[in-house]
Design a protein that fits this description.
25% helix
């Protein structure tokens, strides 16, 4: 067909963060965008797919000769989220009301200069059901040195009938550890970074963990299950303390959809799409962090936009390990020398940020000292596509108690040696293997 027979097609999603895909009758993808798609097509039959998180919807569109402009409008998609957003599949009005406590005065004063708000909830429980799980079970907040700051079984805001617990904490700027004792899968931890004059907000949803018991070859086998807060599915936002800049939830929804896109390994955002998304980063810097990682993993890297986003994040947040990891990646992309002063003694929150640090440490091992907190947790990382999460084993606890410069733990300590040997297969050829060698444990590294 000639170009004169091509007709304008305009697709608009209900959410600015919804992905749009256009497919022709031969199942070829013709175009993709986020929020809004404008293109030209020949007369024919097409499929438009809308995707928000784990929710999808398809629309068949017929473009007839001489039809003129064709407009396709998508409906809101109810995706699943730990954040109690309106019009999502896993939210309730009573959890939305509980989330609003984030903008109230702090419940506890543990420092000054920053805030943390953490809410754990069971989205599957209904108010008329008898409580069968307390979403705060096994959940606690700690300092990097292991000191417990809050057991959520004693959280200031708790409601068994509505299945949630929350705490609004005033803290010193720095890194904190959110810990979940899963019982079946051990103790898991993830870092939370509190920036000066910002509140880091964390939403956790309960999930069921199951494990079979007994001999799988016999009829007598059984299974055991528990429900615990899911660190891997956490939502993390940032806001100015006491100021709700997004009462409609539109920016939070956009930020959550960006996070879910990263979790599912999709980098469909073009630079123009990101420019339109990132206008809100000054109200929620997490959107800037997600957007920068999307740009880094995309096929087309807009260096100018990356520098703009990272520069803005540095001015907004100050020292922050995730922003430092992005700056590190930019230096490597630009062929510049990494600052000799750059160190990652404490880990970033995002798994992709940590991957950037590990990759850079191949040629610059001083980035992560083997006897730093970050170096010592490196071998205990568990699978997570979004947040950096590690398992707190007995060997790790012993290692964290060891001060820098102290003699290595001997391999003749059976329990520790056995755990470390099992860790060696996980660490593999990581550039942080010196962390393992410091324990003087024979392994395949040698």
């Amino acid at each position: 067909m000639s170009s004169s027979e091509r007709l304008p097609l305009h697709v608009v999603a209900a959410d600015a963060g919804t992905e749009i895909f256009l497919v022709d009758a031969d199942f070829r993808r013709l175009a993709s965008a986020v929020g809004e798609l404008r293109t030209e097509v020949e007369p024919g039959l097409y499929k438009v797919r809308f995707r928000s998180g784990d929710a999808m919807a398809d629309r068949l569109v017929e473009v007839a000769p001489g039809q003129g402009d064709v407009l396709v409008q998508g409906e809101p998609l109810r995706f699943a989220s730990a954040l109690p957003l309106p019009d999502t599949r896993t939210s309730h009005k009573y959890h939305q009301a509980a989330w609003s406590h984030a903008w109230g005065p702090p419940d506890l004063n543990l420092g000054s200069g920053s805030r943390l708000f953490v809410m754990a909830r069971d989205a599957d429980k209904r108010p008329d059901e008898r409580p069968h799980h307390m979403p705060w079970r096994g959940l606690s907040l700690h300092a990097p040195d292991g000191r417990m700051l809050l057991d959520f079984a004693e959280a200031p805001q708790r409601n068994p009938e509505l299945a949630f617990a929350s705490a609004n904490l005033q803290v010193d700027p720095g890194t904190y550890l959110l810990r979940v004792d899963t019982d079946l899968n051990g103790v898991l931890e993830m870092p939370l970074v509190a920036s000066p004059d910002w509140q880091t907000q964390v939403a956790l949803r309960s999930r069921t963990i199951s494990r079979r018991q007994g001999d799988l070859r016999t009829e007598g086998r059984s299974s055991r299950s528990v429900r615990r807060a899911d660190l891997g599915g956490a939502t993390v936002l940032m806001a100015r303390p006491g100021y709700h800049a997004d009462p409609s939830g539109e920016q939070d929804r956009l930020t959550e959809l960006a996070r879910l896109g990263l979790v599912q390994g999709r980098a469909t955002l073009r630079p123009d799409d990101l420019r339109s998304m990132l206008w809100a980063k000054r109200d929620n810097p997490m959107l800037g962090l997600y957007g920068a990682h999307m740009l880094l993993q995309g096929d087309e890297r807009d260096s100018g936009l990356l520098h703009e986003v990272v520069g803005n994040l540095e001015s907004l947040l100050g020292p922050h390990p995730d922003v430092a990891a992005l700056r590190l990646a930019l230096a490597r992309l630009d062929g510049q020398t990494v600052s000799a002063a750059l160190r990652f003694d404490l880990p970033p929150m995002l798994a992709r940020s940590w991957d950037l640090v590990v990759e850079a440490s191949v040629g610059n091992p001083e980035l992560v000292s083997a006897d730093s907190f970050a170096g010592r947790i490196a071998g205990n990382r568990v699978s997570s596509r979004h947040w950096l999460i590690w398992r707190r084993t007995a060997a790790l606890v012993q290692a964290l108690r060891k001060r820098p410069g102290e003699p290595p733990i001997g391999a003749d300590e059976p329990v520790i040696a056995n755990v470390l040997k099992s860790m060696s297969a996980v660490v593999g050829d990581s550039p942080l293997r010196d962390n393992m060698l410091a324990f003087n444990v024979p392994s395949r590294f040698n």
